[in-house]
Each structure stands twice: as structure tokens, then as C-alpha cells.
Specification:
2 domains, 12 helices, elongated, 238 residues, mainly alpha
């Protein structure tokens, strides 16, 4: 009996002959077409596309499976990247660029992460500022630079910086954490180094110099006027 065109097309498409769970990763499945290994894919993608033994797959269906699997693998990679700490949108894009992931896949993953609030630049900015102030206090100047490097918009940065209180108190906190390594310094050297340290932390000269004087008094010393004028006029900016 002569074959119809529909029967011929159906037979021309490869048949799924086996689905095997991968030994090293039980969340992935090896797909065999016409008795030969064809590709691996996420078990979730296989289930979503209703792939089963005995069904046939067109080239378009195979391409869709592989595309969705690439997106799923990228999404899982992003989840792992986010498991260490929150990330900005720019950091996620930079991460995928280093991995040479195609732009459409990156866009889809970022949109998916944003839908479930795993990427939120406003929340990230607040996290970054709070974390810095708790563990490595910095001035607004340094924080602004850091947040720009994370790819955040100016309004997002300024909104996060609004939560910062008195910079002098923050500078004193940073200086107190550093005082232990300066405990043997004479007063002049203490002032010079402390002001330089605070300026490198992003505090402006005025805040750094006032804080250094206060910290010196807390340490149990007070500078002579001549020492104070010399040190605080000649402190290096970096």
C-alpha cells in the first residue's frame, strides 16, 4: 500500500526510544532518538514538553527543548551565584557574559529572577550599605563609588544612602576597629595614619580629621597644637 505524505513525514521524524536519568545528576535525563543518544535535558524541561518514549520529535521541537534546557541551566547557575550573597542586575549580566551565555537566555533568566524578587536593585543597594556599615564602615563617597560599580542607577544609589546617619559616628566606628594596629604609634604618626585610613574609607577630610582627634583622645593622648597643624595639613589624600 502506498504511503500517504503524512505517514512519510511522521516516519521521517526521529522517535524517542529511551529516556535515562543521568548517573551523575539525577535531575537531568539523556534522550535517545532512534536508538542513539541525542541530547541531555533537565527532567523539568522533559516533563514540560511531555516527552515520552514512543513519541516523535521534529527539528523544531528538539530546538525548543534544547533552548529551554539552556535557559534552565542558566537559571540554576544564577541561583548558585546568588547563594553566596545578593547581587545587582549588572553583576548577574557580567557573570553570564563571562560564561558566554547568549543574550536572549540572559534576558529570560533575569526576568524570571525579578518575578520572584531574587534580583531587586533597590533592595540590593540597601543590603550593600547596611552590610558595609556593620562590618567595614565607609563614607558616602566610597559607598557611592562601589554602588556605581555594581551598575546601579543614580536614584537607587541616593535612595540607599539616605539611610546613613551621622558620618562622624560611622568614621569613629571605623577608626575604633583600626585603633588596635595603631596602639604603639606616637601621637603625630597616629593622627597621620588614622586620617589617611579614614579618607581611604571614603570620609572627607573634615570628618576624617575630627574623628582622628577624637580617637586620639580616646586612646589616652592629645596632640600638641603644632603636631595637629602639621599632621592634618600634610596628610596624604590616599
Amino acid at each position: 500500500m502506498a504511503q500517504t505524505v503524512g505517514q512519510w513525514v511522521q516516519r521521517a521524524m526521529p522517535l524517542v526510544t529511551a529516556l535515562e536519568t543521568q548517573k551523575n545528576n539525577p535531575e537531568r535525563v539523556n534522550v535517545y532518538l532512534d536508538g542513539r543518544f541525542a541530547f541531555g535535558a533537565s527532567a523539568l524541561v522533559i516533563a514540560t514538553h511531555h516527552v515520552a518514549i514512543g513519541c516523535d520529535l521534529s527539528d523544531e521541537e528538539i530546538a525548543a527543548l534544547e533552548g529551554d534546557d539552556s535557559a534552565e541551566r542558566a537559571y540554576n547557575a544564577a541561583l548558585n551565584f546568588l547563594s553566596y550573597r545578593p547581587r545587582s542586575t549588572r553583576e548577574i549580566r557580567d557573570y553570564f557574559r563571562r560564561k558566554a551565555v547568549e543574550s536572549p537566555v540572559v534576558d529570560a533568566v533575569i526576568e524570571r529572577l525579578q518575578r520572584v524578587n531574587l534580583i531587586n536593585d533597590e533592595e540590593f543597594a540597601r543590603f550593600w550599605v547596611e552590610n558595609r556599615q556593620n562590618f567595614r564602615p565607609r563614607g558616602t563617597r566610597a559607598l557611592r563609588v562601589e554602588l556605581r560599580q555594581k551598575g546601579l542607577a543614580s536614584e537607587t544609589i541616593e535612595g540607599a544612602l539616605e539611610s546613613i546617619g551621622d558620618e562622624t559616628e560611622i568614621a569613629l566606628d571605623a577608626g575604633r576597629k583600626k585603633m588596635g594596629s595603631y596602639r604603639t604609634l606616637d601621637e603625630r604618626t597616629f593622627l597621620t595614619r588614622m586620617v589617611g585610613f579614614l579618607q581611604r574609607r571614603g570620609f572627607d577630610y573634615g570628618v576624617a580629621s575630627r574623628s582622628a582627634r577624637t580617637l586620639l583622645e580616646e586612646r589616652g593622648g592629645g596632640p600638641d597644637e603644632d603636631d595637629l597643624d602639621f599632621d592634618l595639613e600634610d596628610v596624604p589624600s590616599d
